[in-house]
Specification:
Blueprint lengths: L2 H6 L2 H6 L8 E4 L8 H12 L10 H8 L8 H15 L3 E6 L5 E8 L8 E3 L2 E5 L6 E7 L6 E7 L31
Antiparallel strand pairs: 1-3, 2-3, 2-5, 4-5, 6-7
Length: 186
């Protein structure tokens, strides 16, 4: 049994052989399939751990979003996850997300107490606490010179200083910032 299983499954679920993938909520980068779906999942997991989830609701996030003219597509799920992460801290739980390199959020609720959550993995991928820095960064772009798609998966501490495309085009400056003619994919 991995440490992740001990954190995201109840003892009864582990005894029944429930797999971690049965307690993962998958949400597209644009948001829930219907309002309240993420909050219902999180509340259900908190109840599974034996706590009553007060304030596990994202209505306040919806209300703020309606009044925010700067909100862009894809911003709302991040705000929901930030809000729920803060709420869960009060009941000894936290949100975990695998760094899968895709545009989806795979969300797990872990019972944490005072544990420090580092070194966790799920299907071979690093898992981190929501809001913490990823261990690796995915950078992708189309070369402005030859249009080749370039992708790098880097440790969070590494930059692409002076990186060039195979065609010879310089893409990043000496500090690792993209040059003005280079647009990174979101």
């Amino acid at each position: 049994m991995t440490e992740l299983e001990e954190l995201v499954l109840t003892p009864e679920e582990r005894a029944r052989g429930v797999r971690v993938d049965r307690v993962v909520f998958i949400m597209d980068w644009t948001g829930e399939d219907y309002p309240g779906q993420l909050a219902a999942f999180v509340a259900g997991r908190v109840r599974a751990f034996g706590a009553e989830p007060t304030d596990v609701d994202t209505t306040v996030v919806y209300d703020r979003a309606e009044a925010d003219p700067t909100l862009r597509r894809g911003d709302f799920p991040v705000r929901q996850l930030d809000h729920l992460s803060a709420v869960l801290a009060g009941v000894g739980c936290t949100l975990l997300v695998p760094d899968n390199g895709t545009d989806t959020y795979e969300v797990m609720v872990a019972q944490t107490g005072e544990r420090e959550l580092t070194g966790l993995t799920y299907v071979g991928l690093p898992v981190r606490v929501w809001g913490s820095e990823p261990e690796e960064t995915l950078v992708s772009l189309d070369c402005p010179n030859c249009s080749a798609m370039l992708v790098w998966q880097l440790p969070a501490t590494q930059t692409l200083a002076d990186e060039r495309c195979d065609c010879g085009a310089v893409l990043f400056d000496t500090t690792g910032r993209p040059l003005p003619n280079v647009t990174l994919h979101d």
